[in-house]
Structure formats: structure tokens, C-alpha cells
Amino acid sequence: MASGPQAGWYRDPDGTPDRYRWFDGERWTDRTTTSPDSAPQQGRTGHRGHDNGRSSSWLWAMIIVILVVAVVVAFALHRGTSSDHNAEPDLNSSSPTVSAWNEKSTTPSASSSAVTCPRGQRPGNQDSNDGRLHGGGVSVESIPSWRHENLTLPWVMGQSAQIDDVYPGWMSVSGVGGLPVAEGFSDPQTAATMMMDCFASSDYYAGYTGEKEIRSEALTIDGHPAWWKRSEVYVSLPNLPQVRGDVVDVVVVNTGQTDFLGMYFNSATIGDSTRQTLVDHARQSLKVD
């Protein structure tokens, strides 16, 4: 039996000029071309082209899926970052909100007393008749016209003080006394710092807002080592808007006693030059008894 026509490209039997149609060896197919030399010569090749198209479709589908996943991930990350930026502040921080007193600071501090001040009651001295205030082994000149009245300073031994009313509820003071070594007042510098911290604080100043150290230096009083501290204590009092605060002085002297140190303290309203001159004169008259 003679074989039939071979599969291949033949002129289109419908007579269309320059068009060729694929004959698969048994029947005409719907595949046509105008360039039979460059077109696939076998049916297998045609199927391979169909497989490539299907692979391309799968490739595009995978690309689209990857893009969708990438967009979703990016959106989730963006929301997480936005939430972090908009998070509420940590209200449970352990950082202190009030600064402790720093003896080297030159700016106001909003702290109260930075040390534990002794609370034992100690009797004061009786008035003397020699024109001086005596206590703690030291003495200063009395200020004329100021009345004798001790302050409530439980850690001060043998206090002798004077006060002068500046405004109703506001006064200036000048006084002497002793600071017990057993309570931590170990040397003039340490004791001066402790005394300033205890006296120039919210415990003794209503409306206390802060403190600024003006000077801190070593002195010699009658040949005895001493330490002088001066600070400004600031207040805010609605009933006394004209009062900014006090200038406070503390001078502590090692008098040679083993159980206490001698101490002078005063206060004068900031800007009150008259009273400041009076307490400065008293401080400069300090001597060891």
C-alpha cells in the first residue's frame, strides 16, 4: 500500500494567496502561516509552543501572587510602625521627677531637704547681757531692735537667735548654736551642707520653689577651721507676691569640741539691702567663745 501525503505545510486549499495550512498526515488543521520555512515543521513543535504559553501564564500568576503578598506585608509593617509612633508615653518611668540637691549646682533646684534632718528636741540658751548671742561654743553680736526668739530647729544644740518681721508671715533671722557630731555633722564643710539642706528647704519655707548656691568656701575663725555657705532660697507666695525668697548664710566652726561644732546662720529677704547689711555685720562678728 502506498503511503499517504506526509505531514507538512501546503498551500491553503481554500485558495487564499500566499497562505499555507498545516496538514497533519490525515487531515487539514486550523494552523496557517505565510512563511512555511520559518514555521514549525512538526505537530510536536506546535504542542511545545502551547506548553510555553501555559508556562508563561503560570509565571505571570506567580508574579501577581508575590506582588500581592509583598503589598500586604508592606501595609502590615507600616501599620506597626505607625502604632509605635503613636504609642502613649510610659507613665510608669522610674526616673525621678524632682531633682536632689547638688552642692555644686549654680541653678535653682526644686528639691526639698536632701538629707534626713535630726528631730530630737534640744533646749536653747538663755538671753545674755553682753550684747551677743551665744550657743554651740561660738557667738555673734546681737542686732539692735530685733527680738530674741528661737526657731524650731530640733537638730541645733543650745540655739540662741533673733528675728525681725519683714511682712506679716515673713521674717529675717540671725542665730547661733551647736551641731552634734553624732548626728552626722562630722566636719565644717559637711555640717554646713547638711545645715543648709535642712534649713533652706520646703520644711521651713512655705511656697518653696528652689535654691541656688552663691558661695561655698573655707574660712578660719579665731584660728579654727570653718566653712561658709551662702544660698538663695526661692519661694512663690500668692499673699506675698513681692517676696522672691531669702539669702541664707551658714557658717560652721570646729571649735575643738569633740561632740559638736559651732554654727551661725541667718536669712535676709532677697533685695532687702538694709537687713542684709545687718546680718552680714553679725556674721562677720562671729568668734569662738
UniProtKB/TrEMBL annotation:
<keyword id="KW-1133">Transmembrane helix</keyword>
<protein>
    <recommendedName>
        <fullName>DUF2510 domain-containing protein</fullName>
    </recommendedName>
</protein>
<keyword id="KW-0812">Transmembrane</keyword>
<dbReference type="InterPro" id="IPR018929">
    <property type="entry name" value="DUF2510"/>
</dbReference>
<feature type="compositionally biased region" description="Polar residues">
    <location>
        <begin position="31"/>
        <end position="44"/>
    </location>
</feature>
<feature type="compositionally biased region" description="Polar residues">
    <location>
        <begin position="91"/>
        <end position="104"/>
    </location>
</feature>
<feature type="compositionally biased region" description="Low complexity">
    <location>
        <begin position="105"/>
        <end position="114"/>
    </location>
</feature>
<keyword id="KW-0472">Membrane</keyword>
<feature type="compositionally biased region" description="Basic and acidic residues">
    <location>
        <begin position="11"/>
        <end position="30"/>
    </location>
</feature>
<feature type="region of interest" description="Disordered">
    <location>
        <begin position="82"/>
        <end position="139"/>
    </location>
</feature>
<feature type="transmembrane region" description="Helical">
    <location>
        <begin position="58"/>
        <end position="77"/>
    </location>
</feature>
<feature type="region of interest" description="Disordered">
    <location>
        <begin position="1"/>
        <end position="52"/>
    </location>
</feature>
<feature type="domain" description="DUF2510">
    <location>
        <begin position="7"/>
        <end position="40"/>
    </location>
</feature>
<dbReference type="Pfam" id="PF10708">
    <property type="entry name" value="DUF2510"/>
</dbReference>
